[in-house]
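Morning F.,

Quick status update on the modeling queue. The single chain you submitted on Monday has been processed. Sequence for confirmation:
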Amino acid sequence: MAAADDLAFDPWDPAFVSDPYPAYAELRDRGRVTYYEPTDQWLVPRHADVSALLRDRRLGRTYQHRFTHEDFGRTAPPPEHEPFHTLNDHGMLDLEPPDHTRIRRLVSKAFTPRTVEQLRPYVSRLAGELVDALVAKGGGDLLTDVAEPLPVAVIAEMLGIPESDRAPLRPWSADICGMYELSPSEDTAAKAVRASNEFSSYLRELIAARRKNPGDDLISGMIAAHDEDDDRLTEQELISTAVLLLNAGHEATVNSTVNGWWALFRNPDQLATLRADHSLIPSAVEELMRYDTPLQLFERWVLDEIEIDGTTIPRGAELAMLFGAANHDPAVFTDPDRLDLTRADNPHISFSAGIHYCIGAPLARIELAASMGALLEKAPTLRLAAEPERKPNFVIRGLEGLSVEVG
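Structure tokens below.
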């Protein structure tokens, strides 16, 4: 175990946020776990540890299934944050068994591989239309013109949210996801609370309408889903799951798209290789998600004391799994700081692992491949028009925009 008083790891430093990977290398070299006092977390940077700990049942996304805040040595969230926590804490991402198991089982009944695969033609058609529009005007912002509208429309279509109601979805999501950053401000919390209230109210009305008139959509499917014990999702679980699917269903895809193309522009040899051989798209999607990971950190609570490399981590502590560091671990990836679209052995953990492995990973892969394919085919001369600015966020890694030209 190493102290962190002189670390280059600083999630509030714009220089670090711009390129955290050298600091990750320093962390990996220091050891398997490092205590970081500013966030009261234990940083875990190596791939083998992150992968194993994501599957370790002595850890949890929550502790409230076993302990009160007081018993766990933690302070309850402020009452004014309650709408956010009610929404967040009833989604399967932040639950542990048995609730997680029950909800994921019921959601899986509606969110089947067949359901996802049936979306492929719609995703391909929409990606093509968005890229056609970008080409027609000679370029634009790849973020707002392609990367955002594609996955937002797809998950909204799946959920059964009418096209006329979709405008607030992305702003609601952005405000809610602000709470996943380290030490969010009160202003961030206030925005998340407001978005949680508005999004929940909207979904409550939509769910009521679907109960009366079910459709061929995911919300109707989740309302109808039950098992042999006649377990069903409660209304709050329905709302929280719909928000989770919407947020997780597009945030990573949006950021993977722009992070990925920014990486391609910075590695013209790899872009040229991809343009010459579109069959590399599947491996390119995996490599770009590894190379500049859209979700850099994922937390776990220590429910039962564990030991890492001779260091005892007590119950009540919090581990910060550094996905970005794990995805650049030279013990697993040959020449990890090099972008290699032909990389065959690529066990990245950008979709997490264990019981919380991303249920939407197959859909994300379809969307990323569709937008990449459409851009390669319809915009073969796509080029960077201006150096992008990186968002100040550390945990959810993305760009403010990506200005491109065509023709």
